[in-house]
Specification:
Number of helices: 13
Strand content: 15-25%
Order of helices and strands: HHEHHEHEEEEEEEHHHHEHEHEHH
Shape: elongated
Number of strands: 12
Largest sheet: 5 strands, antiparallel
Radius of gyration: 27 Å
Number of domains: 2
Oligomer: single chain
Distance between the termini: 23 Å
């Protein structure tokens, strides 16, 4: 998995909200992530030392360096400290399509950029051979920002090359911009010869293990989404026994009732189903509240997309219950849809045989061939 694939997958998982993705990088610019606050001067001092082309070319450098590296995302509307500043400073007036089109045209401008601060006239060496990026509107800290998701350059094509001419009598100098890895990403200019030597050793998937681990983390369902999903399933299925039996596998367990004074509740109110009487702000500790809720509601449903953390929740629940005195307590039924598990998650549950959950129902379901494709 390269930087482009990671960012594309992560944005899809998080509904095109950037906050949790940026948090993975501790709000810093790294090998796959760069911030740009604006593409226009913000005060008279900046305007005196730079022109508009300098700001556009700063964005171009970031995109080219990312493409010559492992890919990733350059975000317009976030300052160097990782704080959202929005797009008003870049001239955004409310028309997303027009704003995106204007910036893309300036980035891919065939005549290049006559910069004041960045040292002359910069151009594409080959105007037909340009970078590939996908502008996407995303949310960050509650504000609209524009994310340029950049594909890594194909190895067979060689690096993207820019030329720079300081004056009209000078021969253009070829320069390759490369974004180096490490804890803080940096765009480094190299000669074509040096870049070609580096290109033979370039590996866009060098951080694949890190990216895959992060994707697994991002797939853990958001507490609010988890609660609304469970509530929807509960409403649809509690009174439909045939559908319940077809879609879900029941798991039996002995548990300690949290509030013995109130007795077992067959149904919770919609607003407190997973929070079980606690405030909405307490949903941050959703795994604990998940346990409390299913101990007090019968029947209970564990739902969510594959990879959303269901196996982890069940294992934690089982371990916690196993450390408690459950002798003589009544049983509850937890309904779990097999189709909602990843293969690794389901294998983890079955192989561990963690008491007091009874895995016989899962094993019988697998032996019958249902959802056997998971393995």
């Amino acid at each position: 998995m390269n930087g482009f694939e990671f960012v594309s997958t992560a944005l899809s998982i998080k509904g095109y909200e950037l906050d949790s993705i940026v948090e993975l990088a501790q709000k810093s610019e790294v090998d796959w992530l760069e911030f740009k606050a604006a593409i226009k001067p913000q005060n008279s001092d900046e305007a005196a030392g730079s022109n508009d082309a300098d700001y556009i070319f700063n964005l171009v450098k970031a995109l080219v360096g990312m493409a010559n590296g492992s890919g990733g995302v350059v975000v317009l509307g976030i300052d160097d400290d990782g704080n959202a500043v929005g797009l008003d400073k870049s001239g955004f007036s409310g028309d997303r399509d027009d704003f995106t089109r204007q910036i893309s045209q300036k980035v891919l401008f065939r005549d290049g950029w006559r910069t004041q601060k960045s040292g002359g006239h910069w151009c594409w060496k080959d105007t037909a051979d340009q970078l590939s990026f996908d502008p996407q509107w995303v949310k960050y800290q509650g504000m609209d920002v524009l994310a340029f998701v950049v594909r890594p350059r194909s190895a067979s094509l060689g690096p993207l090359i820019l030329t720079r001419t300081k004056n009209k009598n000078e021969e253009p100098k070829e320069i390759v911009l490369i974004r180096t890895g490490g804890d803080r990403g940096e765009v480094v200019p190299r000669s074509v010869e040096d870049a070609n030597n580096w290109w033979t050793q370039r590996d866009p998937t060098i951080f694949s293990t890190k990216f895959k681990t992060w994707i697994a983390e991002l797939k853990k369902t958001d507490p609010g989404l988890f609660r609304s999903t469970v509530e929807a399933y509960r409403q649809e299925l509690t009174n439909n026994t045939a559908e319940l039996d077809r879609l879900y596998v029941p798991l039996e367990a002995n548990v300690r009732i949290i509030n013995t004074g109130s007795g077992r509740r067959r149904h919770q109110t919609d607003d407190s189903y997973l929070s079980s009487g606690t405030s909405a702000s307490a949903m941050d500790n959703w795994r604990g509240e998940f346990q409390e809720a299913i101990r007090n509601v019968y029947p209970s449903f564990l739902v969510g997309e594959p990879g959303s953390g269901k196996s982890t929740s069940l294992l934690k629940l089982a371990r916690d219950n196993n450390s408690e005195d459950t002798n003589g307590e009544p049983s509850w039924t937890l309904y779990v849809p097999l189709s909602g598990f990843t293969a690794s998650g389901l294998q983890e549950l079955i192989c561990r045989e963690v008491e007091p959950l009874n895995w016989a129902d899962i094993e019988l379901e697998l032996e019958s061939g249902v959802n056997g494709h998971l393995f």
